[in-house]
Amino acid sequence: MLFSSATFLFAFLPVVALLYYLIPKRCTAARNLFLTGASLLFYAWGEPRFVLVMLLVIVSSWLFARKIEASAKSARKGFLLVAVSVDLTVLFVFKYLGFFTENLNRLPFVRLPVPQITLPIGISFFTFQAISYVVDVYRGEAAQKSLWDVMLYIAFFPQLIAGPIVRYSDFADQIHNRQESLQNWNRGGYRFAIGLGKKVILSNNLAYVADAAFSSVGNLSFSMAWIGAVGYSLQLYFDFSGYSDMAIGLGQMFGFHFLENFNYPFISRSITELWRRWHISLGSWFRDYVYIPLGGSRVAAKRRLYFNIFIVWLLTGIWHGAKWTYIVWGMMYFVLLCVERILNLSGQKSWLGWIYTVFFFIAGNVVFRSENVTGALKYLLAMFNIHTTGLLDEKAVYYFAEYKMFLLIGMAAALPIAVWLRAQAGRRGAWIENLRPVWCAAVFLVALSFIVKGGYNPFIYFDF
After folding, report:
1. How many angstroms separate the CA atoms of 234 and 201, rounded?
2. Do 98 and 211 lie in a common domain?
3. Collapsing DSSP states into helix, strand and coil, what is residue 229?
4. Do 112 and 55 have their domain in common?
5. More confident: 425 or 297
6. Burial of 320 from C-beta contacts in 10 A (0-12 / 13-18 / 19+)
7. Domain span holding position 136
């Protein structure tokens, strides 16, 4: 079920909210159980059978966490390794087995049947939350005897299928001690409306520009290559940050508070800064559960530091999907981050830093979006006017004319103009802040008109 669908907006959310708040506030356990059931229904809406996969991950992680908590220190690491292995095996079978078999078949005398396995939506997100829970229990940072509480943590529908990735320590206290209020509901509703607008008004329309460009690889003009690359970068940002806004808003409507997942990445002036602002929860996960356990930056040898960065970015690329383009994308950022460390560029504040950061971000998104490495290379060459149909063609003129408003609004909305306006409201009066309900309602109504009209709608990050 999509947050941006009529079914969710006019049926699921109103019914769930009404029934939830009909349960007396003092009955927190009943409210939690209801939210868990609603979350399982939400996930089962499209593919009911995959609920069993998620329940397998949840129950096995909970059982092994209980064993870790109850075992002697000498046995705990063994249970941890088995628990993580189970979660990673589930992820590998559903997401990577076909890709692994295809590449294995390239070896001489190897001919294996390639399994055709449907990918459960959001499997990377809920398996990572399950792994983080088990690891935190092993570290003594979390423990939960109730299966239902762990199930609510992993399956909670606002962040279930596309994040943000939430750590149990950030969620645990809110299970039984959250603050539900009309003010939280209103603020959550405003945040949800903005996220819906990002997705439906901007991302969905920018998708037409990106699709037109990436479906014409090998027959692109210089202008169309850039229009498509910029359009896709904005589409990706508004798709994922829009979902994160909706997830954060929905959580707040039910009294839960999630950490921010995006912080205006387009103003970054280094690749290091970019990855502190983009998909913050994923970066934090790899930092806490891969980079630091490997030794992080506190290692004696430089080569070990670069090895640690290599592992993180190899896994980050693989996490995004079973394609070589994702691995190449991850390796590109590995190289850039190492170069920044060597040249001490990560702390720069120059306009030149902003230009090169945005350029490589856009170039990286071309690799990310391409079907294969060859297609990515052809597209990147077109951005340098190599093997193109010319500087400008009719397709570029058409798509810019038709979608220039979405491109320009997207560029403006990707900048922290709203932050500046809120700051002005604090200095010069509250009238700007008081307009928030009006413009949030306007965004929501415009988004609804696009939903009713129909068209492109799926979230990009559902594939991960």
Report:
1. 12
2. no
3. helix
4. yes
5. 297
6. buried
7. 20-177
Instruction: Let me know if residue 27 belongs to a domain.
Output: yes
Per-chain mean pLDDT for the chain: 90
Q: What does pTM read for this prediction? A: 0.92
- Of the three residues 177, 196, 224, the one that is the final residue of a domain is 177
Give residue 230's Cα distance to chain centre.
19
> Considering only CA atoms, which of 88, 44, 25, 257 is closest in space to residue 159?
257
The verdict on 137 and 112 lying in the same domain is: yes
In angstroms, the CA 203 to CA 207 distance is 6
- Per-residue DSSP letters for 37-61? HHHHHHHHTT-TTHHHHHHHHHHHH
The token pair at 402 is: 């038709």
For the residues 1-14, what does the mean pLDDT come to?
Answer: 90
Active site includes 257?
A: no
Per-residue pLDDT tens over the stretch 178-215: 888 999 999 999 999 999 999 999 999 999 999 999 99
Alpha-carbon distance of 265 to 358, in angstroms, equals 9
Q: CA nearest 260: which of 176, 200, 195? A: 195
Q: What is the pLDDT of residues 285-330, one digit of tens each?
A: 999 999 999 998 888 888 999 999 999 999 999 999 899 999 999 9
The residue from 144, 177, 210 where one domain ends is 177
Taken as a whole, the chain contains a residue count of 464
Give the pair of three-digit tokens for residue 450: 């696009």
Whether residue 327 lies inside any domain: the answer is no
Among 176, 279, 320, 387, the one annotated catalytic: 320
| 245 and 394 in a common domain | yes
Same domain, residue pair 166 and 57? yes
Q: Is residue 448 part of a domain?
A: yes
Q: Are the CB atoms for 175 and 149 separated by under 8 Å?
A: yes
Whether residue 15 is contained in a domain is answered as: no
